[in-house]
Task: structure prediction
Amino acid sequence: MKRISIILALIIIGILLLSSVAIATVRGESYTIGFWKNHDWETRVYPDWVSLEPIYICGTQIPQSEGQMIMKNANNKNFSMLIAQLIAAKINASNGASPTPDFNEIENWLSLQIDCSSLSSILSNYTKPFDKNNKDQKNTANEYKNILDEYNNHDFLDNY
Result:
């Protein structure tokens, strides 16, 4: 009798684990910049339903090598952390994580702050310091960065 109870308990645990994996797979997962700066995101292999769209910031395609460099160098003293969080969020969205933040709003604001019209412009400007005379600029960048950070850390799904 004890053996049957143990077997039934293991079966129930297995069913619960499988159902939670299925739910996570359907929703897609979001991962942090710490994950994406160290893992392949151009040739990742996912089920057929996942779209492997290139990652774009303000209309500019971001290759993996440059994106990972931005993520590795990101800090809160300039635009790099916002751009790093945005890259990770775009990867997560292409991986099926939802609901997504309003990328257009963030990118429209970002394009008014720095030149992001080409990859070379982004790479030249992502470390541009915030304007010391414009506290709203840093506050808005931090607000958007925090929204993307929540999304990349799964918290966005719980709060929105």
